[in-house]
Each structure stands twice: as structure tokens, then as C-alpha cells.
Specification:
The chain is mainly beta. The chain has a single domain, classed as Jelly Rolls (Sandwich), CATH 2.60.120. The protein is 9% helix and 46% strand. It contains one helix and ten strands; from the N terminus they run E-E-E-H-E-E-E-E-E-E-E. Strands 1, 2, 3, 4, 5, 6, 7, 8, 9 and 10 form a ten-stranded antiparallel sheet that branches. The chain is globular and about 45 Å long.
Length: 181
């Protein structure tokens, strides 16, 4: 089990934890649909959408875990509706450009990792997020993948992925968020 961490800066939050049932979803990486990454920030990877029904158990575990962390940190919001899920299989050299998910009703984005980076001594394949404090100073945080690792963030946070050396697989979930204050 990985250590839980919660980051809160200038009203934006990131939860770092793990999920137990992630390995039940390895089958989603069997490529059955054409690559959908052309209109996204994914470079040198295959992106494929999945139905809410086929990812419900994991999506519900993410919601429950994240809502408990939000409550413990006294953040006045709650994830309440799973909107969409997609898988990304990055090829060697694959990466994702800086982007955010604050379109439509999306209020939170979750990333579940399936692979360990080949070399933890560098930033290959690491997720990075840019957070600004109340003075406008920017801070970049990094998270390295590990099987079952879960990163959930406020959808307004700009983030991306550094190029990976080996193949790397993630599931991404978008959720609606209800604000209570």
C-alpha cells in the first residue's frame, strides 16, 4: 500500500493514494478501438474511451477514497458523478502536453497507474502539475507511477506527463464535483 498525501494550495487540491482493485482493469488495455489521441494532448500513445458501466467499480472506489480525503482536509467539495473514463498506452518516448480538464461539468480528474517506471532516479513518465500560490508564484510537483497508484486533482490544475522510456499505461477518469461553500 502506498502512502497517502494531500496537497492544497490556493484553493486547488491534489490527492495521492492507491486503489486495490486496479488490476481487475488490465483487460481495458487490449486495444480494440482506433486511436483517439489525435485531438488530445497525448503524443506517441494510444487513447481509447471506455464505458461508465465497465469501469464503475473502480470509479466508485476512487470517488469514495477521494471524498474521504477531501473531508479529512476540510475541503468543501465532494465528487458526485463519474462522467467518463479512457485508457492511455504511452509508447516509448510518449508524453502528454500541459493541459487541464476544466471543460463542461468536469470538476476532478483521476489517474490510475498500472506500471512502474523503469528508472526511479529520473522523471521519465512522471505526471507533473503546476500549482500557483496566492501571490502568483508557480510550483511544479512530480508524481512517479506505481501499480495501483492514484492521483486525483481539481480539474482546474494544469498538468502533463514527461516522456516515458518504456511503455506506460494509465486509466483516466473525469468527475463532476459539488462545492459546499
Amino acid at each position: 500500500m502506498l502512502e497517502d498525501n494531500f496537497y492544497l494550495l490556493n484553493g486547488r487540491w491534489i490527492a495521492e493514494t492507491s486503489v486495490e482493485c486496479y488490476s481487475n482493469y488490465e483487460k481495458l488495455f487490449n486495444i480494440t478501438e482506433p486511436d483517439g489521441s489525435a485531438a488530445t494532448s497525448t503524443v506517441n500513445g494510444h487513447q481509447q474511451g471506455h464505458s461508465i458501466v465497465e469501469t464503475k467499480e473502480l470509479a466508485d472506489e476512487i470517488m469514495s477514497t477521494t471524498n474521504a480525503m477531501l473531508a479529512n482536509a476540510n475541503v468543501l467539495c465532494k465528487i458526485n458523478n463519474h462522467l467518463t473514463t479512457w485508457s492511455i498506452q504511452y509508447n516509448p518516448g510518449g508524453w502528454s502536453g500541459l493541459h487541464c480538464h476544466n471543460h463542461g461539468n468536469t470538476g476532478a480528474t483521476a489517474v490510475v497507474y498500472f506500471d512502474e517506471p523503469s528508472n526511479g532516479d529520473n522523471d521519465e513518465g512522471a505526471l507533473y502539475a503546476v500549482l500557483a500560490d496566492e501571490h502568483g508564484d508557480n510550483y511544479t510537483n512530480l508524481w512517479h507511477g506505481a501499480p495501483g497508484k492514484l492521483i486525483v486533482m481539481d480539474a482546474r490544475i494544469w498538468h502533463g506527463v514527461y516522456p516515458t522510456i518504456n511503455n506506460r499505461r494509465v486509466l483516466v477518469f473525469d468527475y463532476e464535483v459539488e462545492y459546499n461553500g
